[in-house]
Amino acid sequence: MPQNYYDILGVSRNASDKDIKSAYRRMARKLHPDVNPDDSRAQNQFKKVNEAYEVVGDPARRKDYDQFGDNWKHADQIRNVNAGRSSTGGIGFNLGDLFGGGRGTGGNSFGDMFSGPGSHMRRPVRHEGTLEVSLDEVYAGVTRRISINSVGSGPRNLEVQVPRGVRDGRKIRLRPDNDTEIILTVNVRSDSRFSRKGANLLTDIAVNLLDAVLGCEVEVPTITGRVALQIPMGTQNGRSFKIKGKGLPMGDSKQFGDLYATINVRLPESLSDEERQLYKQLRDIRSATSGERFARIGEDNTDGAGD
To answer: Angle between the 75-83 and 59-68 helix axes, to the nearest 10 degrees?
Structure first.
């Protein structure tokens, strides 16, 4: 039975985002493989902590997890099912289709869309629909089970293999028999963590002004967990760092795209009196230093002109 993500992090279900982040950092430091190189149990627990934080540490995912539990990855499909079935001629998914069952309750199954006028024709009858997948499912690949009523053979369960690295808009064709053709268009749902460019992933990392000036270490999300990235001193807003091999799989090969983390420098929205005074002092110091440098440049130019 899957463990409760809140229990893994040692926090209550109504814990604040700040408390969840603090709990994750505390446990990650304690269980990190570098600290426990020969402890497989600690390393396994470290993976579970990362997995839990990837869900409840993200506000959107946490909301889905609180509502749907272990089925949170299929939240959009469940909401679509509850909102109503697809119109005639499309593909109507039900909860059984999503989680391996046959017919759902209170509505038509996928297969009901394949019965009706024209089903007796010998020429294949084409039916089209949309298959939604998450970015995590694009990374790992996924098998979906659907139930249909194909011509002449009655109800039948089919497995749809969605390959790793599948692109948005790709069409998957099924021919369960000579009289039925199914075309599914893959729709990759948007992800709050990343945007996608081919096999590469892009993400924005918020860094405050002082950390950008002095340098710091930040956490960068990846599909498989968070990694540490060292931000050098004087990093400019908008600078991107490439994290090799942390993108999406390139089809069926063993190669992966890269992850690009772009720095978003956040300026303070308000300052205390003490902070304001310190910033003024820093500005005066830099102005004085710049003035001396410009004066020396002017002297050098004057000397050069006189020679």
So the answer is: 60
